[in-house]
Amino acid sequence: MGINTYQEPVAYLRSDSPVCRAQGFDAHSRIRVGLGDRAVIATLNIVDPPLLAPDRVGLSEAAWRALGGADGDPAQLSHPEPLESFSQVRGKVYGHSYSRSGLQMVIADITAGRYSELEMAAFVTACAGSALSLDETIALTEAMVDAGQRLHWPSAVVVDKHCVGGLPGNRTTPIVVAIAAAAGLTIPKTSSRAITSPSGTADTMAMLAPVDLELPRMRQVVEREGGCVVWGGAMGLSPADDLLIRVERPLDFDSEGQLAASIISKKLAAGSNHLLIDMPVGPTAKVRSAHAADTLARRLHGVGEALGLNVRVTRTDGSQPVGRGIGPALEAWDLLAVLQNQAGAPTDLRERALLLAGQLLEIGGKAGHGEGLPQARELLRNGSAWRKFEAICQAQGGLREPPRAAHTQEFTAGRDGRVQSIDNRRLARIAKLAGAPASPAAGIELQVHCGDRVERGQPLYRLHAQSPGELAYAAAYAGAHPETIQITED
């Protein structure tokens, strides 16, 4: 039918179709569509007669890709098998705990495409907040790993680095990967695309090199260069996580248990045994207080320990964005400036990346205690990190230049004073309204940070968009919220 429903398979029938009458199908029914030896569970939409003949079934792009075939092939429609595992979700809603076997059933059904968007939303909601115990989180993580492929590497030490997110910019991962791989560590980095932010690591890396690598190609890159930065969703590593992210994105929330399960399952599936987690803490970050950081860190350590993953959590400043760029292309320009040792490279991004890379070198046994940071700094200074990053990009398909937005607008200080605070969430929202990450060149170029002295009329940030409409849309919201960057008198 040429209809993009993102990743959700959808089927289309007329209400007077003989199949609808015979089977009792109605709008939003879940139906099994078979074509040859392939089948998919799809959500049914009912269409008016001119769009389809009575004996035709239409398919969304996602369903078409799953089934293959050609227009006019015979299809078999039927009710899917009863969804027994959903009783586990109902039980959780009414106050019962998930069993290990119950979560295995739920995740297996989600991975097989048996859950509708509504049913996955119910599962995500039932797990929200602190609803999952540590035992349930461990069981969920195991189930997510078991549902997909798991990589194994010849190196005894395989490291990874992850940020819990919630901080605009902060694109340290590609820099850390380059330094770690240049030091001789194995770091098979699989990253996510944006869930609730203007850019994820995979979105930013895609501005510089292909990230949609299949598993054999990813393995070749790591074996050749020691590291990679690729999109995990292309490889079937913890595939349930990518399906759940699809639902979490429009709901615009993460839960503590699912966040821990998502992080740990991806790292275990990628074959890592040592993990460094960057946890920014700040009033408008994802983790907003020391208490919340303590709780999440305990859960991450507990799940990692139970499943054989050595986890170190490093708390960092989450009070403001890191770097200048917010959005895929703008963040890519930032990390290039750092890796190439450009004079104007953002200092905060460089120093945070070096801090994390230094810790990773110590965790991986490449540096003694306290020696990781100077070693990381030297690998960056002498060009080893940049050469390794270039080699990784070439192995992934070629290094390319990020795009530039066609339309920009500056926002300036309304008074003399000092930057008191920056609202991370509001700044991220402005970047998303400008089109990020779907419009990769869109976003924000930040001109100031907390503590900077500014004069009336001085630029605070530049808004980037790929169309005049998106620019006007984001600018209207930004203009209505001048408190995004608070300026106080000295």
UniProtKB/TrEMBL annotation:
Its EC number is 2.4.2.4. Belongs to the thymidine/pyrimidine-nucleoside phosphorylase family. Type 2 subfamily. Keywords: Glycosyltransferase, Transferase. One of its GO terms (cellular component) is cytosol. It catalyses: thymidine + phosphate = 2-deoxy-alpha-D-ribose 1-phosphate + thymine. The keyword Repeat does not apply. GO terms for biological process: pyrimidine nucleobase metabolic process; pyrimidine nucleoside metabolic process. Residues 418-485 form the Pyrimidine nucleoside phosphorylase C-terminal domain. The keyword Signal does not apply. It comes from the Bacteria. This is Putative thymidine phosphorylase. InterPro entries: Glycosyl_Trfase_fam3, Glycosyl_Trfase_fam3_N_dom, Glycosyl_Trfase_fam3_N_dom_sf, Nuc_phospho_transferase, PYNP-like_C_sf, PYNP_C, Thym_Pase_Put, Thymidine/AMP_Pase. GO terms for molecular function: 1,4-alpha-oligoglucan phosphorylase activity; thymidine phosphorylase activity. It holds the Pfam family PYNP_C. It comes from Stagnimonas aquatica.
